[in-house]
Amino acid sequence: MNNIRVAVAGPRGRMGSEAVKMIMGDETMQLVCGIDPKYDGENIGEVLGLPGLSVPFVPDVRQALDTHMPDVLVDFTTPQVVKENMVAAIERGVRPVVGTTGFTPSDIEELDKLCHLHNVGAIIAPNFAIGAVLMMKFAREAAKYMPDVEIIEQHHDRKLDAPSGTAVKTAEMIQEARNERRQGHPEEEETIEGARGAYYNGFRIHSVRLPGLVAHQEVIFGAVGQTLTIRHDSINRESFMPGVNLAIKKVMDYKGLLYGLENVMV
Ligand code: NAP
What is the CATH code of the structural domain delimited by 130-235? Predict the structure, then answer.
């Protein structure tokens, strides 16, 4: 296979730096630049302490794409900049592989249309951990038979958005398998606001933020006399990289926007 030229937006971040290492370790991929508004021209290898890597930082996404002409843009930045990065890439025929969370359904629709307009593939995955995707699939299956459910997601306290993209995606997949119905006592009242968590089509999503956590989620189903808990834990950020690797390879042969790693793992 020819080398896939990859640019990484957010290469100094917790996820972006893991992506840089993963790309370095795959002989079918070549890292061509990193995009970071705080650095201009410095060597990523030196800044990240990765001997053998000699690739520049570029401060602006358009400049990076025009100068280094990657095939794929991997984005692990922030919800504030990711959409602009994706639009810049798609308009130039560069395929985005995005782990940054915080997209709305209308963002997804708009970006899918843009992909089709420019005949480009893109992948957004709220969770690149293969075990997390299996958790979502198992939750959708369980919801057919045990429709009463709540989701508890737990993340480190540097996370900007809540609930997590994984929790929202899990909720959407559960919703596909059950009829909408409001759970809990019809007269329940919160004596402290927010105690029952976020309301999503009749059930609740709870977000925990604490130092020491990485990314964890429990989906708890309840029925008469029994509960079922499906749990996934990412204990480090390397856990996401096999999914990112798979998405970079898959996006090379795809047109339109794929949302969710489950659509890549088919
Ligand atoms: P992080 O450590 O804060 O990294 C974000 C990086 O982006 C930082 O280095 C930041 O620089 C940089 N940045 C900010 N603005 C930028 C811009 N305009 N262009 C390029 N880089 C920019 O965060 P993280 O933990 O890696 O997470 C990044 C995103 O991935 C979040 O949305 C998170 O929820 C998501 N995430 C997804 C998955 C998944 O599997 N899909 C897993 C974990 C996390 P400064 O620090 O200097 O601002």
Answer: 3.30.360.10
